[in-house]
Amino acid sequence: MPKYYTLNEANETLNLIRPLLEEMMEIAAKIRENQPELWELVRKSAGNGGNPRLSKLLVEFDHLDAMYHQVQDMGIEIKDLTIGLIDFTALRDGREVYLCWKYGEGEIQFWHEIEAGFAGRQIIDWE
After folding, report:
1. SS3 for 123?
2. What average pLDDT does this structure show over 51-56?
3. Is residue 47 part of a domain?
4. Residue 35 clears pLDDT 80, i.e. is over it
5. What is the DSSP letter of 120?
6. Percent of the chain beyond pLDDT 70?
7. Is the pLDDT of residue 81 over 70?
8. CB atoms within 10 A of CB 122
């Protein structure tokens, strides 16, 4: 059963995890920057006993994965680390919806239906 957040709970939680999300976005950006070279690093390291640059990226990837699961275990869905898009499950009129936040926004101001996605965001007009 998912955790359902009120708007106040979601905003309080957002304030707690914002530094974590910023760190996740930075690591994800580093991984994306190195993506074209990763396969070549993997190929070369297999034959010569390793590569320090690849090892560092793998440590960062493991750290990113651990943080991702930490956020996910709180019932928060990470939709896009490129733009810092996350959703908190909430109830509106007895049905599940998402409270939607994007990096750079202050507090959570938008919601959308589960199936609507980011394009279906609407201003929160309740609570």
Report:
1. strand
2. 72
3. yes
4. no
5. G
6. 87
7. yes
8. 13
For residue 1, tell me if it sits in a domain: no
**Mode of pairing for the β-strands spanning 122-123 and 110-113:** antiparallel
Residue 2, domain member (yes or no): no
Kindly write down the DSSP assignment for every residue of 72-116, as one continuous string. HHTTEEEEETTTTEEEEEEEETTEEEEEEEETT-SS--EEEETTT
Domain count across the chain: 1
99 within 8 A of 90, measured Cβ to Cβ: yes
Amino acid identity at 38? L
pLDDT of 100 > 80? The answer is: yes
Would residue 69 count as lying in a domain? yes
pLDDT value of position 57:
75
Distance between CA atoms of residues 60 and 70, nearest Å: 15
Q: Which helix (H) or strand (E) segment is 119 a member of?
A: none
